[in-house]
């Protein structure tokens, strides 16, 4: 039992470290700061008066070179490897690109090799105890904690998507009102970037800055879906804007209709969530009850639970019980998840 308490303490410690690293809600606005510096320098250029033309041209040339350097740094991959050897090994696997994409969608600024170090840290205590006790089932049980960081990324992305979905209708209202006031679509995006909360502001800030730096609006809009690929609302918005640019029409009215549709769908989502709350709670109890009971019995009567941890048959029974509980939880969750 002492070995398993050591594992428990180690996993909890790693869990807290991973939570701190992966669930940092403070967005990285270094790119926006660099762009702001570029805009301020551009504004300073317009204020230069009474100087020699050659000096002005030389100053502008130096600032243009500095701007190109800043743009190069902004486009630099944020998830590059810290350790070249690990980068060489991990870069040979195709799933690394999918992991980078998931980290980008979750807005996690972390090198991929550091992420895999965290995954290894979850598995390592089980591997050491499996070698010391010559019991492969301990290592098999340790594989599941290795998926915890991946679950963190998924949960962080889902949380970001939920925030985006709740804030997006208000952003559509800002864009439609701005268009009615006579502003351009780019100016409307910049207004959303300044007025909306995270993560909507970051998405529109990125798109508006890309367009300002010379990227085609169609490409920038289509790339928005890569940041929130599971957002149907964003896909409708991008499609509506692109169609309007091709055939014309009143974009403000289109966005108002889309805004109304999104809000009505959110009401239906709320009704479904209320109706399925009891079933979801049942699934949660089904998943957590075996773990809680096992922990309590192990603390009250360690000898009674000892065969489960010290014998091969007990390890197999424990593994099967946890697997069946997890399967039941996932089945109930799938049943109660209704798409609208």
What does this structure look like?
- This protein is mainly alpha-helical and 340 residues long.
- Among the domains are: 2-155, no CATH class; 277-336, no CATH class.
- It is 81% helix and 0% strand.
- The chain contains 16 helices and no strands.
- Helix 1 packs parallel to helix 8 (148-180) and helix 15 crosses helix 16 (312-336).
- The protein is flat, with a radius of gyration of 26 Å.
Segments where pLDDT lies below 50 for 5+ residues? 22-30, 71-79
Shape: flat
Q: What is the distance, rounded to the nearest whole angstrom, between the alpha carbons of the first and last residues?
A: 48 Å
Largest sheet: none
Category by helix and strand content: mainly alpha
Helical residues, percent: over 70%
Alpha-carbon Rg, integer: 26 Å
Q: How many DSSP-defined strands? A: 0
- DSSP strand content: under 5%
How are helices and strands ordered from N to C?
A: HHHHHHHHHHHHHHHH
Furnish the topology, listing elements before pairings.
Blueprint lengths: L1 H21 L7 H17 L6 H22 L9 H7 L4 H11 L6 H22 L2 H8 L4 H33 L4 H11 L4 H13 L4 H11 L4 H16 L3 H25 L1 H24 L1 H9 L1 H25 L4
Helix pairs in contact: 1-6, 1-8, 2-3, 6-7, 8-9, 8-13, 9-10, 10-11, 11-12, 12-13, 14-15, 14-16, 15-16
């Amino acid at each position: 039992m002492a070995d398993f308490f050591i594992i428990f303490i180690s996993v909890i410690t790693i869990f807290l470290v991973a939570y701190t690293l992966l669930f940092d809600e403070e967005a990285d606005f270094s790119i926006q700061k660099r762009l702001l510096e570029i805009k301020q320098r551009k504004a300073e250029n317009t204020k230069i008066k009474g100087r020699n033309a050659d000096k002005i041209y030389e100053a502008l040339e130096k600032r243009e070179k500095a701007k190109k350097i800043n743009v190069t740094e902004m486009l630099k991959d944020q998830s590059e490897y810290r350790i070249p050897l690990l980068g060489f090994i991990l870069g040979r696997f195709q799933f690394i690109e999918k992991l980078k994409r998931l980290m980008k969608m979750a807005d996690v600024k972390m090198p991929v090799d550091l992420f895999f170090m965290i995954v290894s840290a979850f598995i390592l205590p089980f591997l050491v105890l499996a070698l010391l006790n010559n019991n492969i089932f301990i290592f098999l049980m340790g594989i599941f904690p290795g998926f915890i960081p991946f679950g963190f990324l998924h949960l962080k992305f889902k949380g970001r998507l939920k925030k985006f979905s709740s804030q997006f209708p208000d952003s559509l209202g800002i864009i439609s009102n701005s268009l009615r006031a006579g502003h351009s679509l780019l100016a409307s995006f910049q207004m959303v970037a300044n007025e909306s909360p995270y993560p909507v502001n970051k998405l529109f800030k990125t798109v508006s800055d890309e367009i300002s730096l010379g990227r085609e609006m169609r490409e920038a809009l289509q790339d928005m879906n890569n940041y929130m690929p599971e957002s149907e609302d964003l896909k409708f918005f991008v499609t509506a804007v692109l169609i309007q640019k091709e055939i014309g029409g009143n974009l403000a009215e289109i966005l108002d209709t889309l805004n109304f549709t999104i809000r009505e769908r959110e009401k239906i989502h709320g009704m479904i969530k209320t109706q399925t709350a009891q079933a979801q709670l049942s699934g949660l109890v089904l998943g957590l009850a075996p773990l809680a009971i096992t922990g309590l019995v192990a603390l009250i009567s360690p000898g009674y639970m000892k065969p489960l941890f010290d014998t091969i048959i007990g390890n197999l029974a424990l593994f099967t019980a946890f697997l069946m509980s997890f399967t039941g939880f996932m089945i109930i969750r799938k049943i109660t998840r209704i798409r609208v």
